[in-house]
């Protein structure tokens, strides 16, 4: 592909991402990242804030900002680890669990944001392709960091 074609493709991905996220957040009533935080905590509750950061692949400052909003809304509680004061455990509250259940019920009633565009099979294929792309991009990012840190590629 030429650079122009790649640019065009990336721009269309960006536009689709913006619209999908907007629709998702309007339907759910919470930001996508905050919803993902609650989903990770639903899987493993409580969870160290640093582990949450790693699972979501976002920086520490962003996790802290999102958690402050979730905490202010009564969706999470944070507590320092008594054995290591530098660690913070994050836990879902009952209010968050009710919010998640409510969102899941609404989703069943209204259907997926992507349902009109893709069949279930196509959605699974799309997810497989996105996972493949993200894995490759992580490898490129890791290689770039190694070059920048060492001056030579390993």
Automatic annotation (TrEMBL):
CDD domains membership: HTH_ARSR
Keywords: DNA-binding, Transcription, Transcription regulation
Ranges where the HTH marR-type domain occurs: 1-135
A Pfam entry, by short name: MarR
InterPro entries: ArsR-like_HTH, HTH_ArsR_DNA-bd_dom, HTH_MarR-typ, WH-like_DNA-bd_sf, WH_DNA-bd_sf
GO molecular function, one term: DNA binding
Keyword Magnesium: no
Keyword Transcription regulation: yes
Entry protein name: Transcriptional regulator, MarR family
Organism, scientific name: Enterococcus faecium 505
